[in-house]
Amino acid sequence: MQRVAMAACAAFLSCAALVPPSAGQTLNLAVGAPVTSLDPHYHALSPNYAVADMLFDSLTSFDARARVVPRLAASWRPVAEDVWEFRLRPGVTFHNGNAFTAEDVAFTIARVPTVPNSPSSYGIYTRAVRRVEVVDPLTVRLHTNGPYPLLPTDLAQVEMLDSETHANPLTEEFNSGKIAIGTGPFRLVSHRNGDRIEYARNDAYFGERPHWARVIYRMITNDAARTAALLSGDVDFIDQVPTSDIAKLRGDSRVQLSEVDGLRLIYLALDHSREAASPFALGEDGRPLPRNPLKDARVRRALSLAIDRGAIAERVMEGAATPAAQLLPAGGFGSIPGLVAQRGDPDGARRLLAEAGYPNGFRLTLHGPNDRYMNDARIIQAIGQMWTRAGVRTSVGAQPWATFVGRAGRQELSAMLAGWGTSSGEASSPLRSLLATYNAARGFGGSNRGRYSNPEMDAAMEAALRTLDDERREALLREATRIAMEDVGIIPIHIQRNIWAMRRGLRHEARADELTRAQDVQPAELAQR
Predict the structure, then answer these.
(1) N or C: fewer beta carbons within 10 Å in the chain?
(2) pLDDT tens by residue, 41-50
(3) How does DSSP assign 115-151, residue by residue?
(4) What Gene Ontology molecular function terms does this protein carry (predicted)?
């Protein structure tokens, strides 16, 4: 069963020749998005996964181009339509010296869907597993609920725990560092929530030994401060390069950029959960409306039509984004050929609103984070202005991510901006996470914060998840995508381009999944050997 892997072309500026730093050197990183937890199964969020991926390992992994590659599993194969067998690498140990075995795989898969109060569960990646069979210490068979071709892909998101160390683990114990123990290339030294994480190299790592003896992983959510930290030499490497600084950094001989077309969709989610009044959708007089206008597909289409995605990509994102009309970039597995973003049409949006019974529009508040995605607060502001021009008088509520994600997860909002990184490169990921009818027990809709539900879309998506034939599976994913996009289950805005910056003398492998990890950075001379 071959998968269509998404190709991503990384572009690096030439590196100045330097004497390689000693193997004891420290790498100082600064990232733009806050990390909310060190528990690798608590919150399915790219910044969390990136820091966990330095401490822990998964059975499989994604390379920089989103292809599935071996990690803790040396190999895998289907031994029946509903059974996958994984052979584990011998000699792998956790940071505390405990051996990694098949029992740890069974323990981890059982733990993932049970983490309490998860804002976005990793259960979507284990939902297909019906039973775990430990064959021997280095062999495990995963029995699925029917044919399931995506299991090796899903397990790239599931970091393995130690069944002894992590018996009855609490998320707070990971965050304190007490049980933040994995098999990964680095060990945890300290964690100051929302500020920094310090790592030390794991000299017993089974894979390629990291160059850096020590890593300081700082969270600097202010764009200007992050760039200033790089230019002053306070840090060596930053992610989420502010679009307003790209030209300046390209012309600075002290630094270089690392770039790749990304897999992150920036989109709007709308309140589908309420038939009656939605909390931030109000009448012209500011009073609650008798019914939720966002339940009407004509209103949702009007809101989508009012957005000039090209203007956002060029003026707000300064060219570091591609306007989107669906879930994946062109060529992604399950993307619809030829489906491209429409030009903004405020007059057409007004006509749709009038047809839906809102000739004078209504009031709406658009919420979103101001410290999570590239230019997120500016995007919210731009969309608010576009909606207002189309007759929906819009206020904006940009908040710190930690505040916003809690409110969104409790369905307190009416319209919200968010993002989804499809690390697998295929449409099943956003379909089952963002658009599938919410069902915690089945692991569907974990990030469906608007509670969109469409049985026709669900049926096509679930059929795709059971289909082994790639051609047929892609056709079903396209059908599910078509249904969701025509129904405006969410409103796609654009696909981000991933851009990092670093001091000269370093080399970085740019990843389509936008993860920022110390193991992907090394001195330029070492990279050229």
Answers:
(1) C
(2) 999 999 999 9
(3) -TT-SB-GGGGTTTEEEEEEEETTEEEEEESS--TTH
(4) peptide transmembrane transporter activity
* CATH at 301: 3.10.105.10
Q: Is 506 helix (H, G, I), strand (E, B) or coil?
A: strand
* Cα dihedral 69→75→80→84 (10° resolution): -70
Query: Given a cut of 70, is residue 469 above it in pLDDT?
Result: yes
The helix (H) or strand (E) run that includes residue 12 is strand 11-12
Position 15 pLDDT exceeds 90: no
Query: Is 255 a member of any domain?
Result: no
* Global confidence as pTM: 0.85
Of 471, 473, 478, 497, nearest in space to 337 by CA: 478
**Helix 346-355 vs helix 297-305: angle between axes, to the nearest 10 degrees?**
170
What is the pLDDT, as a whole number, of residue 186?
99
Q: Is residue 24 domain-resident?
A: no
- Cβ contacts of 26 within 8 Å, gap of 6 or more: 212, 213, 214, 215, 216
3-class SS of residue 358 = coil
Instruction: Say if residue 275 is in the same domain as residue 390.
Output: yes
> Residues 112, 114, 118, CA angle at the centre, nearest 5°?
85
Local structure of residue 297 (DSSP, 8 states): H
Percent of the chain surpassing pLDDT 90: 91
Residues 305 and 445 in one domain: yes
Domain co-membership, 267 together with 140: no
Q: Is 408 part of a structural domain of the chain?
A: yes
pLDDT in tens, 281-310: 999 999 999 999 999 999 999 999 999 999
